[in-house]
């Protein structure tokens, strides 16, 4: 495919129409040659520099709003900075880090982020896989299901969290009412640890399952039909086909969704913030569903310690890098084994 | 935008079996006919997906006394339009809608334009450092937004941009996903021969972009534009930090602040949540097929 002639000194060939990169064979009058040379220089400049012109806006914006903040956060995490005077920085060394590592609420938030991450990601991806499998059948009105499934994705975190607060209400919420019907005691979804984490996770699950199901569905449709046919010839039933054909073929896609969901889970912020009926940033009275993202917000914007918030942000980033490395190792091992 | 994608992605109906081998082919994976159980599961899942949205409207149509009773209401009351109107004026949602439309519109259009030219360069042009730069683009997708929020907040404070829309628009323009998405699309959709033909006709790079790349990329640009519009519309963390409810809020910021008080007005909050979601739901109802296709298309090649 890659048969482009970028580097060749090719005249635009307006008059001759000769393919670029093929030097003209016949002798040319000097003035034409001069003109061609000039055009050719402009041509070369264009070919050499226009790619940079095309990618530079992205990188300029990235430098200003991506790279600079990244480095600056590292710098700020070594300083004492107050929200009220963000440009007033005082060197603090690693004090911000030792301070947060000594804070029980940091470890509490880290644990909550992990558990909420697991509770929200694992069922979500497994359900998405099952739904995608069904959507891959020949269906009536398949587009309808797909669009309906994507409706939660179109719903903002704010709108979704607010309605889930009501549905999970202790006294008048619909979920407790339904539990009551089947004889289960009312659950305090706000103040008890595990129920509150399950409730927050359910917002995430609700918003993202359909989206992930579509991603799986796309990958399933790319699986060659012959694989299923030969599996069927070997006497594999539906479940065995799913297990031995579908799942192995989906491995890269599953890995992709795991990574994306992990990143999303580690940054969880809006859902726990808005789920709190008291509208604080502590993630419940006992910090029972405070995530790292929320803890960072509390330190920076409620307690006004931007330096400490920067330190929290960097630890979050480092955790993600570790996850990235683990993911890389796993995917390499998967590739090696297949 | 209203036409279907020229390159039908996976949103097309599953293909009929190419080789009919009787039962065996019919039983094979992707071509199975769904049984009643499958339809039942799908029905449950569809109801669960849509119910919270419908119930938002039900709750908004009831007053707070009714919401504080068991069993919870399952059908609409009569107060929906009054509550919507109240939420509209209370949260100054008119202004919020205008703000969000500006923010999401400007961001989506700019991202689509910049991503298309950058994606074209990465997909089809050779230049020194291409591989390394592309790695950086992918790497930037890993950086958590929380990490950028603090310095960006300082920048905004220093520039005196708090409560101003550019504080939300400018940082949202960095979309590594967009560049990646367009690159993947153009790699496959834009044959090298067409670019060469345009070159032979004397077109410089900008004319190639204008006359060849943009027409080819139009379906993907539409999908990316819609995805980015949805994302910016629903963005919460950053607008929440730099905009306040009294100064140029976006819809999400305005809605998050609704009905706050000693006893929150639940019904009003639901009305606001509904209003904030409605425009996007409409977009999804109209362009649902294309959006589904776009997401699935991005998935296969990403």
UniProtKB/TrEMBL annotation, chain A:
Keywords: Cell membrane, Membrane, Transmembrane, Transmembrane helix, Transport. CDD domains: TM_PBP2. SUPFAM superfamilies: MetI-like (SSF161098). It is a multi-pass membrane protein. PROSITE patterns: ABC_TM1. Pfam families: BPD_transp_1. It comes from the Bacteria. InterPro entries: ABC_transporter_permease, MetI-like, MetI-like_sf. Residues 8-20 have a biased composition (Low complexity). It comes from Streptomyces lomondensis. Residues 1-27 are annotated as: Disordered. The chain crosses the membrane at residues 52-75, 114-135, 147-169, 311-330. Residues 110-327 form the ABC transmembrane type-1 domain. It is found in: Cell membrane. This is ABC transporter permease. Belongs to the binding-protein-dependent transport system permease family. The keyword Transmembrane helix applies. The keyword Iron does not apply.
TrEMBL record, chain B:
This is Sugar ABC transporter permease. The chain crosses the membrane at residues 37-58, 102-123, 135-156, 168-187, 208-230, 268-287. Belongs to the binding-protein-dependent transport system permease family. The lineage of its organism: Bacteria, Bacillati, Actinomycetota, Actinomycetes, Kitasatosporales. Residues 1-26 are annotated as: Disordered. Its main location: membrane. It comes from Streptomyces lomondensis. Pfam families: BPD_transp_1. It is found in: Cell membrane. Keywords: Cell membrane, Membrane, Transmembrane, Transmembrane helix, Transport. It is a multi-pass membrane protein. Residues 97-287 form the ABC transmembrane type-1 domain.
């Amino acid at each position: 495919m890659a048969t482009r002639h970028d580097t060749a000194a090719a005249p635009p060939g307006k008059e001759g129409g000769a393919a670029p990169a093929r030097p003209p064979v016949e002798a040319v009058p000097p003035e034409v040659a001069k003109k061609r040379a000039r055009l050719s220089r402009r041509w070369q400049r264009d070919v050499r520099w226009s790619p940079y012109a095309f990618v530079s806006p992205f990188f300029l914006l990235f430098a200003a709003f991506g790279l600079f903040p990244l480095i600056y956060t590292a710098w700020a995490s070594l300083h004492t900075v107050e929200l009220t005077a963000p440009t007033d920085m005082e060197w603090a060394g690693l004090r911000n880090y030792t301070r947060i590592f000594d804070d029980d609420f940091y470890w509490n938030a880290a644990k909550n982020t992990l558990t909420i991450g697991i509770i929200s990601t694992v069922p979500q991806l497994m359900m998405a896989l099952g739904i995608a499998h069904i959507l891959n059948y020949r269906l009536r009105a398949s587009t309808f299901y797909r669009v309906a499934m994507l409706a939660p994705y179109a719903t903002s975190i704010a709108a979704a969290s607010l309605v889930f607060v009501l549905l999970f209400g202790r006294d008048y919420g619909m979920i407790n009412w339904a539990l009551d019907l089947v004889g289960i005691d009312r659950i305090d979804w706000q103040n008890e640890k595990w129920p509150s984490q399950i409730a927050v996770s359910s917002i995430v699950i609700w918003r993202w399952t359909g989206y992930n199901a579509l991603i799986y569905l796309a990958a399933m449709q790319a699986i060659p039909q012959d694989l299923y046919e030969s599996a069927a010839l070997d006497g594999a039933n539906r479940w065995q086909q799913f297990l031995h054909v579908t799942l192995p073929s989906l491995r890269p896609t599953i890995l992709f969704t795991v990574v994306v969901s992990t990143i999303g889970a580690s940054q969880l912020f809006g859902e726990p913030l808005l789920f709190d009926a008291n509208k604080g940033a502590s993630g419940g009275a006992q910090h029972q569903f405070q995530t790292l993202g929320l803890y960072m917000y509390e330190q920076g914007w409620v307690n006004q310690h931007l330096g400490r918030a920067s330190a929290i942000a960097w630890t979050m980033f480092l955790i993600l890098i570790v996850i990235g490395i683990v993911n890389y190792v796993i995917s390499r091992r998967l590739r090696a084994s297949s | 935008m209203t036409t279907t994608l020229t390159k039908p992605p996976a949103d097309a109906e599953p293909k009929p079996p190419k080789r009919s081998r009787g039962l065996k082919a019919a039983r094979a994976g992707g071509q199975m006919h769904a049984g009643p159980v499958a339809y039942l599961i799908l029905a449950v899942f569809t109801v669960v997906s849509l119910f919270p949205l419908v119930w938002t409207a039900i709750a908004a149509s009831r007053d707070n006394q009714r919401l504080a009773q068991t069993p919870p209401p399952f059908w609409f009351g009569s107060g929906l339009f009054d509550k919507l109107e109240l939420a509209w004026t209370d949260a100054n949602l008119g202004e919020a809608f205008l703000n969000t439309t500006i923010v999401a519109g400007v961001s989506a259009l700019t991202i689509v334009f910049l991503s298309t030219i950058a994606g074209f360069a990465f997909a089809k042009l050779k230049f020194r450092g291409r591989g390394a730069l592309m790695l950086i683009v992918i790497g930037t997708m890993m950086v958590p937004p929380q990490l950028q929020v603090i310095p960006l907040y300082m920048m905004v404070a220093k520039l005196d941009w708090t409560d101003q829309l550019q504080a939300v628009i400018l940082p949202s323009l960095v979309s590594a996903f967009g560049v990646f998405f367009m690159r993947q699309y153009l790699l496959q959709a834009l044959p090298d021969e067409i670019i060469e033909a345009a070159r032979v006709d004397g077109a410089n790079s900008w004319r190639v972009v204008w006359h060849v790349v943009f027409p080819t990329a139009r379906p993907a640009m539409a999908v990316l534009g819609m995805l980015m519009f949805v994302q910016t519309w629903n963005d919460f963390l950053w607008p929440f930090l730099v905009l306040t409810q009294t100064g140029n809020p976006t819809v999400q910021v305005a809605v998050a602040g609704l009905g706050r008080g000693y006893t929150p007005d639940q019904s009003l909050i639901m009305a606001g949540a509904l209003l904030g979601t409605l425009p996007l739901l409409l977009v999804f109802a109209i362009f649902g097929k294309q959006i589904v296709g776009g997401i699935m298309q991005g998935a296969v090649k990403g």
